[in-house]
Amino acid sequence: MAESESQEGNYANKGNKVQNFKMDMEELLEKMEELTVRAAWMSYDCVPIQTNPDLHNALQRLEDAFLMCKEQMEKKWQEVLTD
């Protein structure tokens, strides 16, 4: 009697493990699909940058301005926190 209950518990446990494995695999597949789409868009975005050097320079200036702005905001935030 106790043996059959133990076996039923083992079967249920295995069923849960299989279900969890399936869910984990589905999540990983979704993440891989998302990464594939991102990689495709990144390669798509690289074509204009390679064919138009002015665009690359403009993007570099924009990134530099963003980083300077971000640095200033972080400094101001630190000043606010220390006051």
TrEMBL record:
**Biological processes annotated in GO:** reciprocal meiotic recombination; spermatogenesis; synaptonemal complex assembly
Signal peptide segment: none
- Pfam families reported in the protein's UniProt record: Synaptonemal_3 (PF15191)
Q: What is this protein called?
A: SYCE3 protein
Q: Supply the source organism for this entry.
A: Pycnonotus jocosus (Red-whiskered bulbul)
UniProt lineage: Eukaryota, Metazoa, Chordata, Craniata, Vertebrata
